[in-house]
Amino acid sequence: MRHRVWIAPLLALAVVSAGCEAAEDRLRSLLYDESDTAVPTPQDDEQLRQQRTVEPGADPGDATVIELSDEIEPIYAELGDEADAHWFSLQTGDDEEWMVDLEVEPQDDSLDVAVYLDLPGSGEAPVRYDIAGAGEIEELPMLRVGAGGEPQRFSVTGADGQSGAYSVRVHRRLTAATVAAEPNDVPQLAMELEVPGEVQGFYQRPGDRDLFFVPAESLSAGVYSLEISAVPGLEQLLRIYGDDELDEVLAQVSVSEQAPAIIPNLSLDAEEGDQAGLYFVLTADGDGFDREQGYRLRLVEHPDADEEEFTVEREPNNTESTAQWVDFDERVRGYLHTADDVDRFRFEIEDADDEDDQEDEQEDEQEEERADVDDEEVDTRPEALQRMLAEQADFEDDGDDELEQLIREEGYDVVDPWEDVEQKESHEYVIQARLKPLGDAHRMAMEWIPDADSDDERQELIADDPEEPLVVCNRIVADGEHHVRIWSEETDEGFRPRGYDYEFEVVNVAYEMGLEIEPNDSPETADRLQRGEPRIGFIDRDGDEDYFAFVVGDEEPRLVDREEQHDDESGWGADEMESVTVSLEGNPLDLQFEILDDEGGRVAHVDEGGPGSDEQLQIDLPHGLYYVAVRADSGSVCEPYRLEVTTR
To answer: What is the topology classification, in CATH, of domain 523-647?
Structure first.
């Protein structure tokens, strides 16, 4: 009885359940179209392929357009004979710029496709992508589409003339980083870099190169450090050019697999209008490439760019056209960022006709730096008196000048003890180029390169050790553009750029008090050495000799009565004697000097001390003209000596 109670409800529940399932099936059929949600059959794939199959154009002008949108369907095509090439054009709407990945996939395992990417606006041949093998997807990652409103064209061919079907798929890439996009193999498509800033890039294929451009106005604003990170397994090379012809390499640096490369002082020292900017060209060694591990190129501000006590050397300055301009007495600190780095500097001396104001300033400085003599003393200097005597026929007799009257009177002669010694005029520019090492990683070298129209010769100096300074000594220069080239003759193998390698300056020593006036290597070209007025000289080359003339007795020209001269035709009072002291304050060389009379006969020779020692002679001499010749036992140095004659 109890069992019969449960049977009826169970039967009722079964009937209800069966009804619900039937109702659910009917509801599902109303809400969903089962044909749209079913798993595609091979027949459906074939239908989709047929719907998206195109016949691409055979040349760029007839390229099949692929409009980029949020939903990009694949398209299909089939290569026929071996001469077949299909052209496509990627385009965005409203001049929008996209970055996309392009995939070309063979539809059978035997087809190997090659893709050629057009370089719009460059006139260069398309670049080839043929990395994948037969049956594998050929991928072109990080394509820039729509830059400058230009479509991005590419063509598909069968490698080695193969034929078969393939598909083309485009995927939009979203990235927050600044990434180098393809194509950027030519200057016209170079990616512009912000300064300071950075970019990440990849070598996408064998022979790939990435070009970046920095405008001149960005680089002229300061000095920046350029760093290129290493890519494991790849050697890289950065070349820097000054224009889009890419003809002349201004600077280059290799990047090893293990460590980044740095140019710590990148800038642009060109005059306004000379250069549009700099092009950086990055390549990988050989056929190497890596789509997974990229490089990073960074431009950051140089930490010492605003320091006032010196100027930072600016790269690129490796060539004649990019040599860095320097002024006199401007201290420059520089880097040799690689063992092969060459730094070049230049200064210019303008034609005197174009620099009247500068000439006036130089004359004022010259007067201030010369000996303090009053106007009366200047008027009675030997050269002034000689000029008066030469023009005595034109003097007017005003009765006030006793000297003029005496000159006109018969029976008087003018005796000038300096008659046989030319009164020289100082050179306007006597240049020293000084190079001081600031580290021990390089053995330095320097070359003096005079103006192309100059008769001056080049001079090359090479240090014997890393601590040795170099000086191009006392080059007499005229108008023109003169250059100095600096490099490392030998570099420590463990060298890494860490700080400044040298300090360089160009100095005009022409107005240093008492500086010798070259040439003065013989009695006929001797400089005047007046009592109490020291002269400064240099033994700046092997075998150099410096001659100076001095007078014992009265140095000033005077009038002599012929009748009172008697047997002393010179009128000098040559029978009189005077005690003379010749003092030579030495330099690091082993200096010596000798005294000659006015006929070239040796009076005395002094060589008592060794290198760096002073020499001195005290001797009684008759009145007259004498010469002192200074020389070194051997060697040369651009450090001065000091010569003085005194009497009592």
So the answer is: Jelly Rolls (2.60.120)
